[in-house]
Amino acid sequence: MINNIYLLQSDTVNFCSLIQNYPSNEESIIGRAASQNWNPFPDFHDLIHLELRRSDTGKSNYKFDFSSSLSPFFIISDFTLNLLGDILCPRGQIIPVSTKSKSKDFYGYYPTNAISNCLNMKLSNYESYQDKLLIETPILNKNRITDEYLFSIDEDISRVFVTEKFKARVEQSGLLGFDFSIKIETI
Q: pTM for this structure?
């Protein structure tokens, strides 16, 4: 049984994050990931170059294991991949990235396990725009949630959700940079 659902996001107050450095004639990884509609990238050969962004409190270091600043494309540390690979790999795609970190390696992670008809259209707050939904406040149908750890929904091209079970694994592992402060309503 699925209990609590959280938005997958990073703690930018206490931890730094990674942002993309890309030429003006190239589409960002955020746009490219959103265009995939949760389908795997075919033959991804580009190396995504990332730069460190200071935390909201001014810290500048690589002492974090997760960054959501490029959502729906996430950045995970080698430590995260080692400890949560059994959850992440079957539910998404690992993509090479480049950073200036000398202390740890980072990878891109793009979820590919969207659930259909999970958004409660009657209770969620959204607007339709060019055959897409601009969702301000999602409310999910609990009976449609079929994954016990991590999932996205077809109706939303940018949000990824995690369960209480995923949160517990992260907390038990001691991984840094995750923020589970936004709980998603389910009915």
A: 0.95
Q: How many residues does the chain have?
A: 187
Q: Which domain holds residue 28?
A: 5-186
The β-bridge partners of 162 are: 6, 150
Number of domains making up the chain: 1
- Verify cis geometry, omega within 30 degrees of 0, for the bond prior to 72: yes
Read off the tokens for 153.
């929904």
With 0-12 CB in 10 A as exposed, 13-18 as middle and 19+ as buried, what is 64? buried
Measured CA to CA in angstroms, residue 164 lies from 8, 34, 76, 167, 180 at distances of 11, 25, 19, 5, 9
- The DSSP element (H or E) to which 171 belongs, if any, is helix 164-173
Show the DSSP H helices in 9-138 as ranges. Answer: 29-35, 78-88
User: pLDDT tens digits, residue range 35-70?
Assistant: 999 999 998 778 899 999 999 999 999 999 999 999
Give yes or no for a contact between 140 and 4, defined as CB atoms under 8 angstroms apart. no
Per-residue pLDDT reduced to its tens digit, 89-135: 999 999 999 999 999 999 999 999 999 999 999 999 999 887 788 89
Torsion, Cα 71 61 88 119, to 10 degrees, reads -30
183 alpha carbon, distance to own chain's centre = 15
Alpha helices (runs of H) in 55-144, residue ranges in sequence order = 78-88
